[in-house]
Design brief:
single chain; Metalloregulator ArsR/SmtB family transcription factor; alpha+beta; DNA-binding transcription factor activity; 117 residues; DNA-binding; transcription; Arc Repressor Mutant, subunit A; 3-stranded antiparallel beta sheet
């Protein structure tokens, strides 16, 4: 069973300005923002999201950081648990990709209505 959080369902993401969040939705979204609140995790997410072909091997990300492979794996695990990325083991390597729907829902939550002039 996956440990990914189902934090970005339609009920929580009507938009920040549409209605106040209830306590449960706020706690779930805080998990996502906490995952994004680390510079290493932001860089990892960016590396994965910007990758041509949509996925990247952990072996290609590790050299970009002055961190050990287990530390990189820990950061990737937190992004996965927040529901922002997913992965698949292929032989000895793990490949990661972004979950576009999760990012779209998060962006939708943060979007404010356009002012009409």
């Amino acid at each position: 069973m996956s440990k990914q959080l189902e934090v970005l369902d339609a009920a929580c993401c009507e938009g920040l300005t549409s209605a106040p969040l209830d306590a449960g939705s706020a706690a779930e979204l805080a998990t996502v923002f906490k995952a994004l609140g680390d510079p290493v995790r932001l860089r990892l997410l960016s590396m994965i999201a910007s990758r041509q072909g949509g996925e990247v091997c952990v072996c290609e990300m590790t050299p970009a950081f002055e961190l050990s492979q287990p530390t990189i794996s820990h950061h990737l695990k937190l992004l996965r648990q927040a529901g922002l990325i997913d992965c698949e083991r292929r032989g000895t390597w793990v490949y990661y990709w972004v979950l576009p729907a999760a990012l779209d829902r998060l962006a939708g939550f943060l979007r404010t209505p356009q002012a009409t002039a």
